[in-house]
Each structure stands twice: as C-alpha cells, then as structure tokens.
Write a structure and sequence with these properties.
2 domains; 9 helices; 240 residues; single chain; binds zinc ion; Rossmann fold; 17% strand; alpha/beta; 5-stranded parallel beta sheet
Amino acid sequence: MARFINKTLEIIKNICFPIACCNCGDFVDSEGLCFNCWKRIEWISDPKCKICGVPFEIDLDAICPVCLRKKPNFDKAVAAFKYDDFSRNMILKFKHWDATHIAEKFGRWMYGACAADIANADVIVPVPIHFLKRLKRQYNQSELLGLELQKFSGIHYEPRILKKIKRTAPQEGLTREKRLKNVRGSFEIDENYVSLIEGKFIILVDDVLTTGSTVNECSKMLKKYNAARVVVVTIARVDS
Ligand SMILES: [Zn+2]
Ligand SMILES: [Zn+2]
C-alpha cells in the first residue's frame, strides 16, 4: 500500500513539476538524461593509456606515445566520457549556466569512472580558478564536481590547497606547447595545507582534459610538496 501511495505521489509530482533532460530539455521520468542523449555519450572504457587514459583503437595494455615521450607529473588520469561535439554542448551548459543539477549527474559518472582509485585516496582537490574569474562566474565548476565526488566517496575535500595566482589566457585554440607555457607558474600551494599533501594520495578534479597542461602544472606543485600519488579525474577528455 505504501509503495502504491509513493508511486502515485511520484506520478502527481512529475505531472505538476515535470523533470527535463539535462541536455536537450525533453521530459524524463527521473533526473538526468533522456534515452536519446544517453545513447549519444561516448563512454570511455578499456583499452586506454595506463597513464593519461587516452582511448586506444586496438586492445593494448600500454602507455601512449605522448606519455612515453614525457611522463606527466600526475600518475594517472581517468575520465567518464569522450569530449566531442555532443558532450561539449552539455559541458558548456554546465560551465556557463546555473546548472548545479548537472554537477550531480557528472559527479555520479565521474565517481563511476574512478571508484577503484578514489577508494584509496586521502583528499580531493579541485583545480582552482583565479579569484577575479570566480567573481565573474560566481562558481568554479571543478569545485562543484569535487564536492559531488566527496558526497559519493566520503573522501575529504579541500579546495584551499591549490591557488591560481596568475590570470591566464583561455587554453582553447592554443597548441600543446603554448598551453604548457600559458599555465606555467600560474598555481601555488597554500602552505597552511602542506600536511594534506605530504605523503598523501590526491584526487585532482577538473572538468575537461585536453592536452593535460593545467592538471600537469597543478600536479607539479603537488609533487613538489611530496604528494605520494596524484590521480586526475575529469568528466570528459579528448580522444587523441
Ligand atoms: Zn535529452
Ligand atoms: Zn598517455
């Protein structure tokens, strides 16, 4: 009887307050994506590079040429899905609109992608943005994602460890070399939090991984203060 009442209330709620797909706006029966949008997401699974997580076309248990040429400062990077035209649209909504309900979905998917790693982690650290950018945008999307990961994993979350001390030009459209140069020296560690870095396993959270320059620079700082392990977790990554 209680189940029947709950179901009836749920139906009434959906009629009075219909839920929209967080991508296309179509009605859905539970929060999230409609089936059509869900189908279009390119989820990342094996085979992929053991370090940066770039998907491989063929079944290889290996390291990609980029990581072989120069090992990144982070130990591993995982992402929930590929960054393509479809997911770009969804992520842009999250970045530029008041879309905290999308953060909840993204957090759940990111947690699914990194569950094995995060279980052994000590602290979740979001990639910071410059305070002037934060004033303009009002929130840092990486912080929202980090908070969601804390919710799902129960791992300590600390957004004050890393600081963005320099304003930098947007990374979009820059070459790999220019991206590296653009972010070099733009992050700093808050020395009040070194005890949360030394010997610790850190989950570094960002929204999208492109060339990895930003997370690489953040990882460099964390490793400078003797972080034992840094695993980068993003919602999406480019597939090359
Ligand atoms: Zn949809
Ligand atoms: Zn790689």
